[in-house]
Amino acid sequence: MTDKTLKGGLRRRDFLATGAAAFALGVTGFPAVLRAQATPVKIGLIHPVSGFVAFSGNQCREGALMAIADINAAGGIKSMGGAMVEAVLADSQGKPEIGAAEVTKMAEAGIDGIVAGYASSISLATSQEAAKTNTPHVVDVGVSDKIVQRGLANTFRFGPGYGKIADFAVDNLDTINKAAGSPAKTAMIIHEESLFGTGTAGLLQKRLPEKGIEVIDVIKHANPTRDFTNIVLQIKSQKPDLIIPANYYNEYVLLARTMRQQRIEAKGIYSVLGGAASNYQFVNEFPEAADLIMDCNHWFNPKSDVALQRKAAAEAKGLIYTYEVFLAYNAVLGLVDAIERAGSTDKDAVNAALAASEMDMSYMPYGATKMVDGQNEGAQPVNTQVQNGEIEVIFPAEFASAETVFPMGG
């Protein structure tokens, strides 16, 4: 854990300097008797801000800090006398054991709750370690369903897991394919080697044949991978109708660019939790490689004013508005909402409040929030497609901003 504690996104030394200046002003320009401030609530943010998934880890951190800044600007935790929220930052370096060690340090320092840890493998480790002290732990992105299937009373997730995402992805792909006359009959799955990629690939390999789509090959690659030429040549020789990537940002971009360079022809590129397919940076930097790629992933409600305002605020800070940003933002909101309703940082009370959460998340394409064994059953993904340099929602219909283009050839 680093020794830098932030309040609303400010470095500790900056906050102390600002506070000292404000106190001096109070002595000279305002009544000498100042109202005592409530004890701050400390939330640990553990993300891989270095290592091979550092881009995503930093995106998570920024989203979480945005939420803390917004909460504090709105008056803090009102049920606790306006207590401000302070962020305690740690870098898991993309390694589960380091993430778990940071939880231990935070617990010893008296942290009030934790938001972590982007990758599923890290989230499994951090939540397990947090359970030893019953510390409330909200997972921001990690999609493995194992995270919420271990009976941990301290672990919660507001976004969907990959079981639901994979089912949603397969059902929607079937709908899209049938609407076009069922041109796609074969598929290849290209996935990264961690729990996320292997778990997603396993679910797809089981479900796709049920929809009449034969999985002719499943190829696993390492993290990181810096050359996809051999894999793309395998794709080229087997000529699948569908190419289904499940990997992190850097590998996804390189795979897509290599397929473009090798002139791979397919009826569709259909990602499931594609690390770049629903990412404005990829679309802006490599528009030709990104064009018409479909994805089943986390996304915001494009018809929600609140969602669009948060997107604009993130972009005003120079951020790319990726799912890491808004899922980490949501995780902090969910944890603080529970503390607000508990009226304290008592761990049992906060965990009970999280378990009973009915937080309004209409800024996401979700149903009503309902926690079952730590999982928000109202959460669901959407299908997106890159069209004319924009990321459009194509399914479900009530959230759609564009019609589906499939097959890719028209």
Briefly characterize the structure:
This protein has 13 helices and 15 strands.
Q: Order of strands across the biggest sheet?
A: 8-7-9-10-11-14-15
What is the assigned CATH homologous superfamily of the largest domain?
Answer: Response regulator
What series of H and E elements makes up the topology? Answer: EHEHEHEHEEHEHEHEHEHHEHHHEEEE
Number of domains: 2
Overall mean confidence score, pLDDT: 91
Q: Per CATH, what is the topology of the largest domain?
A: Rossmann fold
Percentage of helical residues?
Answer: 40-55%
Our Rg estimate from Cα atoms comes to: 22 Å
Strand residue percentage: 15-25%
Largest sheet: 7 strands, mixed
